[in-house]
Amino acid sequence: MARIGVYVCHCGTNIAGTVDVAAVRDFAAALPGVVVARDYQYMCSDPGQDLIRKDIAEMGLDRVVVASCSPRMHEPTFRRALESAGLNGYLLEMANIREHVSWVTTDVAAATRKAKALVAGAVRRVVLHEPLQERYADVTPQALVVGGGIAGIEAALKIADAGFRVHLVEKEPSIGGQMAKLDKTFPTLDCSACILTPKMVAVAQHPNIVLHTYSEVERVEGFVGNFRVTIRHKARFVDMQKCTGCGTCWSKCPYTAPNEFDEGLGKRKLIYIPFPQAVPNKPVIDRDRCVKLQSGKCGACQKLCPTGAIDFNQQDELVEENVGAIVVATGYSLFDPSRGPWGYGRYPNVLTALQFERMVNASGPTGGHVQLQDGSTPRAVAILHCIGSRDTNYHEYCSNVCCMYSLKLAHLVKEKTGAEVYNFYIDIRAFGKAYEEFYNRVQSEGVYFIRGKGAEVGSRDGRLLVRCEDTLLGKYREIPVDMVILSPAMEPRPDAARVSQVFGIQRSADGFFLEAHAKLEPLKTATDGVFIAGACQGPKDIPYSVAQGAGAAAEVLRLLSAGRVTISPVVAQVAEEVCSGCRACLPICPYRALTYDEGMKVVRVNEALCKGCGTCAAACPSGALSVSHFRTPQVLAQIEEVLAV
Amino acid sequence: MTGEEFEPKILGFFCNWCSYAGADLAGVSRLKYPANLRIVRVMCSGRVEPTMVLKAFACGADGVLVAGCHPGDCHYQQGNYKTLRRVPLLERALAQFGIHPARFRLAWISASEGQKLAQVVSEMVEQVRALGPLPLPRSRFAELGGGEVTTPGGEAVSPVSAGLPGGGALRQGEEPVTGGASRG
């Protein structure tokens, strides 16, 4: 007969406020096999854990049930408590009476009954638990960082500085990300390129960083400490070894296309570097537009290249790398404002904030001149906040950074043109260090602030007209301006769904990547060894992204420097005497962990590959396959008992 | 007061990574939903054997909810696709037991969909409450309902092949199923 201890947690009033914990305790005490049942204020506290340890020692408990919060929260805590008292950690079962009961129920009687049912299920299940031994695996001492924006750059540099090799994968021809496009940064007005490009160069020169630009991760296999990733090197049609970056090719290419880096404002050649400080500073051929690649004519770059670096026969290349940990820092996209009534795409002098960043930048399409389509200088400029953010038609969330960069743009317009500047805002959210001070400074520079969202942009007498409800005046207003700058929402990248599937990351309701815990595990994901950093998790400014990049590096280094990882002992097992060798399970396993032994005519499990999902066990027609800790009798016993109350 | 209202018991099989986490989120967000749901955690919805669902009905569940990650989001790559393929077979078997289709539901609930969980549970509780208690002839489920069940798989669905009288509820155009519903 099992000797079970049951511990019911009050969690302050979190549980005890809705569940009659004394009644649950008394109910548990009467269940078969239960030797002791106690309730306590905070089971996870040291005195709470001591209760368990003491009872194990003094009463000879061999099974423990803790009725408290979600096992996703404190199962490791209580497993350790059991182990420190000499009991195997898997002889524990938790009943989730907080997240699944007290927090979601108002009626005390109903909550108490449900809590009793869950405790009964746990007590019945724990009797059938077996002691399990955790396994260990060596860690490949290399890391993968996906995304060469500021968060990814920071993560890669930190890991590389600690002495581990890093593969940094960037989809675009150059690293730098969105930050490379910015002119100044709030609130200090640092030149963005001046603070970013030294880091980009440090990446390029770092002996521990292998840079994979113009590349994408196609596949990730394996598990924490032992990932095998397949990276596609897209053909640049330029031999990176031979190319010296002299620039002859892009100066001689006779064709142009809209420049993506300048947000479509300027033109670039069909063989190009995205921007002057690009890393690597070597060109790429636009395969969709290049006349030679499309129709076989031209080839001017090839004829003129002094080192013979142009290779029109280059193919995409698939490279495999083994890494121990992964940082995903794939960033964000901007909301497309042509979806709304703000005149974007209709009036040429309506720009996005990022387009304006390029315009005001000295290396941008106008050489830093703030000008209208006709080349003249605007006399009045409107900046519309919250375009697509804080708007239930598009995104409910606040994009965090738009208030601050809108203030920065207002300052730049004022400084460069002296024009009247109108900020149309809902609220000003100046939440960071020295942000409110910057807001005050911009106000004192004579920028107008109108509290009311820019509802619509139209035109009258050849000028643009911003319509809004001024909520301070309580009046409808129309403000004529020459230029409108829209501050669009930060959105998940269009390929976020695909990327999340490649790396096994979940997404939150807004489409951004989901962290393992909103407060305490902001960088971890549902997949062990895969971390997230920067704006792929949600809208962020530069300091926050840098901090997350460094934090993700710390998570990676924790794994790499430990040298080995613990692997769950929850794996499939085959009862060979029952297995009929039908092989129904083989195609079901996504990890190819099952193999058929031709000699013995049975299926075998490779425990190193098995992740314990149990899909094979559910499919086995003879019941030969089972999964430790989720064995059929264990689950059935729990079902029977939770329904009995 | 109209006397005590029937409170159905809904058994939930929730995958650890999405749906169980979604249920945790519902808790953390203090969303309220009926206390009729009892959740059994499995690592993947693909772990749910049809036997387990039958066991739940045999043990007094008035409804069973299987919840997993959205297609494409499975923590184990494809486990939920196996669930998706098994469920129609299971539904046919349930129909032959005379179990109303509304008593069994498969739902995709992600770790961020606490709201959806609360909504699915509320809906299901109302539907099952309207149907009333599940009137199963208990004696036929002796081998499922009582004592230890140590041999999963084949015999669990033997009442199906034996042809349950009064099973009815076969949907139009469907053939009666004979054989195990546990094959993926």
Number of helices of chain B: 6
**Backbone shape of chain B:** globular
Largest interface: A-B, 62 and 64 residues
Which architecture name of the largest domain in chain A does CATH use?
3-Layer(bba) Sandwich
Which bin fits the share of residues in helices of chain B? 25-40%
Major β-sheet of chain B, in short? 4 strands, parallel
CATH overall fold name of the largest domain in chain A: FAD/NAD(P)-binding domain
- Mean model confidence by pLDDT of chain B: 79
Termini of chain A, distance in Å? 22 Å
Helical content band of chain A: 25-40%
- Low-confidence blocks of residues of chain A: none
Q: Biggest sheet of chain B: strands side by side, in what order?
A: 2-1-3-4
What does this structure look like?
The complex is a heterodimer of chains A (about 650) and B (about 180). With about 650 residues, chain A is α/β, with parallel strands linked by helices. Chain A folds into 5 domains: about 5-130, Lumazine/riboflavin synthase (Rossmann fold, 3-Layer(aba) Sandwich); about 140-225 and about 320-330 and about 490-560, 3-Layer(bba) Sandwich (FAD/NAD(P)-binding domain); about 250-305, no CATH class; about 335-490, FAD/NAD(P)-binding domain (3-Layer(bba) Sandwich), CATH 3.50.50; about 570-630, Alpha-Beta Plaits (2-Layer Sandwich), CATH 3.30.70. Chain A contains 17 helices and 34 strands. In chain A, the strands form 12 sheets. Chain A has a 5-stranded parallel β-sheet with strand order 10-7-6-18-29. In chain A, a hairpin with a 4-residue loop joins β25 (about 465-470) and β26 (about 475-480). In chain A, α6 crosses α7 and α6 runs parallel beside α15 (about 540-560). Chain A starts with a strand and ends with a helix. Chain B is α/β, with parallel strands linked by helices. Chain B starts with 9 loop residues before the first strand and ends in a 22-residue tail after the last helix. Chain B is about 35% helix and about 10% strand. The longest helix of chain B is centred in the middle third of the chain and has 18 residues, at about 80-95. The model of chain B is unreliable at about 145-184 (pLDDT under 50). Chain B is built from 6 helices and 4 strands; from the N terminus they run βαβαβαβααα. Classes of the chains: A alpha/beta (about 650), B alpha/beta (about 180).
